[in-house]
């Protein structure tokens, strides 16, 4: 980071301190390994003490912390090690997506497309465009984490700006804006199901009326709010703090063959390649649509599910977006390479995919260590215990109105530092908070949206979020010494500003009594 570019206001000094403190942490691989060991030790201590909680979603079943250092636990550690690695959620998603992206990148398609994009869009809208694209990527589940941050970094680098600023803007949109979209996604379906089940404890009839679009109106407006806030934070805080970027000779050599041709007029062969790649994308999108939009399409959901939109959202197609996206990158990359002669035969394709996988070595090592920690944390029930005690603390404060919503969102943000999965957290919290807030006059839809605001806003500042490791790996392409503290200090302003503005918007929305979605009131 360019020290001469830093501004030393109070907030910037705070970010400097966060960066310094965070970078005192070990390497991410070591950190996850230490967290796994700490989880084992805590599981043993709490297990021996008999620490337990009542699971709100399992018929009031008593759940005790499991001791993973007794005979049974030690057997589990060794027997599960391989499965913990290969079942680590982001591993397959990242590697499969990168196979397609690798061909698109190394054939030159991404570089040419970036130049075309830069030449066609006003420079002052690029940051907003990145944040907006990141927010909208949640319709493709987690694929946005893999696709957009590295593209944002390359785009900024091509413009002569700091690549980490582009990565940060895209990451903020993808992760902190995960619960905002103009369209409905699988996240809406998953959360609606959990909310309905929790509401049924109080009012089964009302629970049956909860639909997947229960937060749709609010998340549509949220897209525009977060895009503006993300642009403001990028332009006024993050990029000025990062300053200018100077590449080492090693980086110039590494990147020169990929996307460092600079911003210049597209060559005729590049234009020809882009045209044919675009045609292949259009054909691919049409073929993909035919898999789901027509009656009796092979990857469409059952008509018994409900409306036409439900048969698309709750379909095998939506569950298969990661391989579909990989294919939609691979095909135009292949077409572009054949047209521009950067791909001459199948050996070139295989080599490009191999080179891409070689560049993912750091992430694979991180995935092994992180996979062990996540598995131990879940198996020991420590996450469940932390969540239940946090929820009980909020309940004991007897808050109402805006303070209640703010308190609930703060507890959600705290729990998010320990449990990365949105579905796991809501499966834990919904049975507790939905009935409590219903009895206080707040609708399940409002409770769910408050959860989504807090959960999304803080995703980008917890190293335990499953995709945090891959973002560090992307960032180290431009700064091999970047640590957890640096990334957190870069992303913290987004988290703070997103949380504040989004929470204020939700409170104002609730005070006005506006519906959150179709047939989705604020008050119960």
From TrEMBL:
Keyword terms of this UniProt record: Membrane, Transmembrane, Transmembrane helix
Protein name per its UniProtKB record: Aminobenzoyl-glutamate transport protein
InterPro entries with a match to the protein in the record: AbgT
Gene Ontology molecular function, alphabetical: secondary active p-aminobenzoyl-glutamate transmembrane transporter activity
Coiled coil: none
Gene Ontology biological process terms, A to Z: p-aminobenzoyl-glutamate transmembrane transport
Organism of provenance: Jeotgalicoccus halotolerans
Keyword Transmembrane appears in the UniProt entry: yes
Annotated transmembrane regions: 31-53, 85-104, 116-137, 143-159, 164-184, 216-238, 274-297, 317-339, 360-377, 397-419, 426-444, 456-475, 487-512
Top-rank taxon, per record: Bacteria
């Amino acid at each position: 980071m360019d020290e001469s570019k830093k501004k030393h206001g109070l907030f910037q000094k705070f970010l400097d301190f966060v960066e310094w403190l965070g970078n005192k942490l070990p390497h991410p691989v070591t950190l996850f390994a230490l967290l796994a060991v700490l989880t084992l030790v805590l599981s043993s201590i709490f297990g021996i003490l008999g620490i337990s909680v009542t699971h709100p979603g399992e018929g009031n079943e008593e759940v005790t912390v499991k001791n993973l250092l007794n005979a049974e636990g030690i057997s589990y550690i060794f027997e599960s090690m391989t499965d913990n690695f290969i079942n680590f959620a982001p591993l397959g998603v990242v590697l499969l997506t990168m196979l397609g992206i690798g061909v698109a990148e190394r054939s030159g398609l991404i570089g040419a497309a970036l130049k075309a994009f830069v030449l066609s869009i006003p420079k002052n809208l690029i940051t907003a465009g990145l944040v907006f694209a990141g927010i909208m990527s949640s319709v493709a589940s987690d694929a946005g984490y893999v696709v957009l941050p590295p593209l944002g970094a390359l785009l900024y680098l091509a413009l002569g700006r700091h690549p980490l600023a582009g990565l940060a803007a895209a990451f903020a949109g993808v992760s902190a804006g995960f619960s905002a979209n103009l369209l409905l996604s699988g996240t809406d379906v998953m959360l609606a199901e959990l909310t309905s089940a929790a509401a049924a404890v109080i009012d089964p009839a009302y629970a049956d009326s909860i639909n997947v679009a229960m937060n749709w109106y609010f998340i549509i407006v949220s897209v525009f709010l977060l895009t503006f806030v993300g642009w403001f934070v990028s332009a006024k805080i993050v990029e000025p703090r990062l300053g200018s970027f100077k590449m080492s000779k090693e980086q110039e050599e590494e990147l020169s063959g990929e996307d460092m041709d600079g911003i210049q007029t597209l060559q005729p062969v590049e234009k020809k390649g882009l045209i044919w790649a675009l045609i292949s994308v259009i054909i691919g999108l049409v073929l993909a649509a035919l898999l789901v939009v027509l009656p009796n399409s092979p990857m469409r959901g059952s008509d018994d599910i409900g409306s036409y939109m439900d048969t698309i959202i709750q379909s095998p197609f939506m569950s298969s977006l990661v391989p579909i996206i990989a294919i939609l990158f691979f095909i135009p990359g292949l077409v572009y390479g054949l047209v521009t002669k950067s791909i001459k035969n199948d050996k070139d394709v295989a080599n490009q995919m191999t080179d891409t996988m070689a560049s993912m070595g750091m992430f694979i090592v991180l995935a092994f260590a992180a996979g062990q920690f996540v598995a131990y944390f879940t198996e020991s029930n420590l996450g469940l215990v932390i969540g239940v005690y946090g929820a009980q603390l909020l309940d004991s404060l007897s808050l109402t109105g805006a303070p209640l919503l703010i308190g609930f969102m703060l507890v959600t943000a705290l729990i998010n530092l320990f449990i990365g999965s949105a579905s796991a957290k809501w499966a834990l919290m919904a049975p507790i908070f939905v009935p409590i807030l219903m009895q206080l006059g707040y609708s399940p839809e409002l409770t769910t949206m408050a959860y989504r605001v807090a959960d999304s806003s803080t995703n980008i500042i917890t190293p335990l979020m499953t995709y945090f490791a891959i973002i560090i790996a992307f960032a180290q392409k431009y700064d091999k010494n970047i640590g957890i503290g640096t990334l957190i200090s870069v992303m913290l302003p987004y988290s703070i500003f997103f949380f504040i503005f989004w929470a204020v918007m939700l409170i104002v929305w609730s005070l006005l009594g506006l519906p959150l979605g179709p047939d989705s009131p604020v008050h119960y």
